Amino acid sequence: RHRDHEEAGPAVTAMFRSLAGRNYRIWFAGALVSNVGTWMQRTAQDWIVLTQLSDNNAVAVGITMALQFGPQLLLLPLTGLAADRFDRRKMLMLTQGLMGLLGLGLGVMVLTHTATLLALYGFALALGIVAAFDAPIRQAFVSDVVQGEDVSNAVALNSASFNAARLIGPAVAGVLIAAIGSGWVFVINAGSFLAVLVALRFVDPAQLAERVRAGRGKGQIVAGFRYVRTRPDIVVVLCMIFVVGTFGVNFPIFTSTMARVEFHQGAGEFGLLNSVMAVGSVLGALLSARRDKPRMRTLVLAAGGFGLACTAAALAPTYWTFAIVLMFVGLASLTFMTTANALVQTTTKPAMRGRVMALYMAIFAGGTPIGAPLVGAVADAFGPRWAIVVGAASGFVALAIAVVWLVRYQRVRLRYDADSRLHLAITHAVPVVGSRAALRRELERDETLADRSSAV
Fold this sequence. Notes:
There is one protein chain. The protein is mainly α. It has helices spanning about 1-5, 20-50, 60-75, 75-85, 90-110, 115-145, 150-180, 180-200, 220-230, 230-245, 250-260, 265-290, 295-315, 320-345, 355-365, 370-380, 385-410, 435-445, 450-455; strands spanning about 410-415, 420-425. The chain has a two-stranded antiparallel ribbon with strand order 1-2. A hairpin with a 5-residue loop joins strand 1 (about 410-415) and strand 2. Residues about 1-10, about 425-440 and about 440-455 have low confidence and may be disordered.
């Protein structure tokens, strides 16, 4: 890692320190191009479902999201094991190539005017199945490319890349939809996957981290669940992610219905809302990249901030005030998601990381089949503003989960120091008995106990 820093030339700031490594620079560049195409496709897909294939039906958008994210939950036992057992670089080349082909097929269908709502549901399901394998492999691949204390920074920069694409993609998609139609947006997205394939081709396998792969014996799938069960700190993060991921991160429903139904705007204005929210998301990811390590208190504050920002969005009186508030929604949501992701990745045993990240992604995205149709139904029955209120409630519930855990199990209390400043403090250690003693020994072997204590 130090040789990479020297070869990078000018000193890399703390915020971008992971880019000092050659492999990560290549991977980052390819992923950025592909992410732009992915956000273009998502914007076009949601728009044609809402305006062309249904009569402004938010439930149809919710069903599309459910089909696209549901396989992450259903295929969880297989996807995590695949991430821990097989060569992640080669697997990513396979999954990214398949997603490119699916995007091309959807584009051809739209361009030839043969697209139907049922057919689009089928493409969404197929894309969801491939993405179910791609997501945990892609998440765990970061720790193959970047090691040590830079993993947290790389996770944050990945989020920044994803949301920089989210800033560019929807705006470009809105213009292209109006100018040349949605079909070409899907074709362009298919081409963008070539950037990832080229990047993976030039990533040097010799510089990737050595790792212990999961064996072929029985019990490998169950071992991942058993490991998480002995980690209450990971369990509480997963509970928070489930609540917010299921009921809060339904942004396509929020932005499309507010733009179309509440403010009577077109495709360009819909794309602009996504881009404006991405400004806050990029800022949140970059601020996370500056931190030396993820902390639980950051996650708690981000959950509360997300609830407050969504409440303000639901009350926004005009299109432009709604757009401004979306920046804060993006800031809070990305801080929350990036911190949760980094907390799980950096404190998980390397041999279990693929299975744990598969569980993480399944809980985060797998709740969408439950939440998206319900939130869409709320938008149809009571209006888009009440759908956003549901999102706000998810942030406050996640905040409550974290506070209860910190107070009850970590003995965290508010205290005043000598300068009368309010701060969080651990009043005394929780007794370690039974299975908790085994947990303590496991954590000490992984050298994560000190990080977890300071993360509060």
